[in-house]
Amino acid sequence: xxxxxxxxxxxxxxxxxxxxxxxxxxxxxxxxxxxxxxxxxxxxxxxxxxxxxxxxxxxxxxxxxxxxxxxxxxxxxxxxxxxxxxxxxxxxxxxxxxxxxxxxxxxxxxxxxxxxxxxxxxxxxxxxxxxxxxxxxxxxxxxxxxxxxxxxxxxxxxxxxxxxxxxxx
Length: 169
What we know:
This protein has 169 residues and is mainly α. The protein has helices spanning 15-23, 33-40, 44-53, 71-86, 91-99, 110-117, 128-134, 144-168; strands at residues 31-32, 60-61, 67-69. It has two domains: 1-114, Orthogonal Bundle (Multidrug-efflux Transporter Regulator, Chain: A, Domain 2), CATH 1.10.1660.10; 119-169. The chain has eight helices and three strands; from the N terminus they run αβααββααααα. It has a three-stranded antiparallel beta sheet. The chain is elongated, with a radius of gyration of 20 Å. The termini are far apart. Mean pLDDT is 73; it is low at 1-7, 107-124 and 129-138.
């Protein structure tokens, strides 16, 4: 199996700190594409591809087109990698997530994502809209409180639809 066909290394919470220590640079230092590719365990051409697909990735480009990634760029790349490789999102799904307000600012908290993604005991069959929202490519993972609020809103909208159908005919 070639290195490009191997699955990515496990994703950890302290990957940024480990990567910073391994490279011998401070956490605030800019990183080259080779350093970032090694830290994220993806080939450099994947980072260039992601740059073409996600407008939020804007590394500093110096003479000769050399890319230098800021710490916030690296966090965004780490988040994209997590969503694509671990959570099973598609490129389009991640693009939708990153366009959502407040999503880019959210740090990658593996434990919180895992806890929010844990299956809950079903009380009733979810509506098709809720079931679609639970699929990885459909949107962000919601914590229990937000999920309950979304389900309540969907129920309320369903009731309004029924009421309107009665009134209109």
